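User: I'm new to structure prediction. If I give you an amino acid sequence, what do you actually give back? Let's try with this one:
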Amino acid sequence: MKSLPAAARRQQGAFLLEALIAILIFSLGVLGIVGLQARSLKAVGDAQYRGEAAFYAQTLAGRMWAHDPTSLQTYFGTSGTGFTNWSDQVTAAGSGLPGAADRPPEISFTNLSSKQGVMATIKIYWQAPGEADPCGGDTSDVKCWHQYVTSAVVGNNVGS
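Assistant: Good question. You get back a string of structure tokens that encode the predicted 3D arrangement of the chain. For your 160 residues, that looks like this:
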């Protein structure tokens, strides 16, 4: 048997090393794609809940528009029948926003001039399922919740 020349002996195993490095680079690429997929799923879930919150807020604004403006603040105030019925839908287990029952929605009113109606500010809070609680269960801190805030002018809307 002939022995391999010195240059050939130095090359033994180089192809195997190149193949292992290529597999490592490919594996890192696949892990990166899996990470991007996980982040995109989280973003889709967040967009879904934000869309639902916008829908709930616009539903309440629509109900306020259809209601008698003279009793608007009484009926849709924090303890009013219209607001509590709507709030029960937002916080309902299984069909409302996740975690919304722990921090119920809020509403506040600002009286505009007598001919321009009332500005209603609606705040809806939620926490996505499985999301880490950054505040350790403290439901009073607004920073610990996803929130959707919108305002609607309801009432006469007649220019002065």
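You can read the tokens as a compact description of the fold. Here is one thing that stands out. Helices lie at 6-11, 14-66, 72-76, 81-91.
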